[in-house]
Design a protein that fits this description.
5 helices; 66 residues; single chain; 61% helix; 434 Repressor (Amino-terminal Domain); mainly alpha
């Protein structure tokens, strides 16, 4: 699943470890989400968006290129 979690996290100056701690998951899971190899639950997506100060659309919406 393509997403913008990594860029939003870096822009917010938050480490993977800090984001994991704030959302109740492991740093490894954050890494997998950022790589697009782990599909987070809706609840986790909401928690990530809240901690990063973004909307779900900003983090997870895919725009098809024509």
């Amino acid at each position: 699943m393509k997403n913008h979690v990594r860029s939003a996290r870096i822009a917010a100056n938050i480490t993977q470890t800090d984001l994991a701690r704030k959302t109740g998951i492991t740093r490894q899971t954050i890494g997998l989400i950022e790589k697009g190899t782990y599909n987070p639950s809706l609840q986790l997506c909401i928690a990530l968006a809240k901690e990063l100060g973004k909307t779900l659309d900003e983090l997870f919406w895919e725009v098809e290129e024509k």
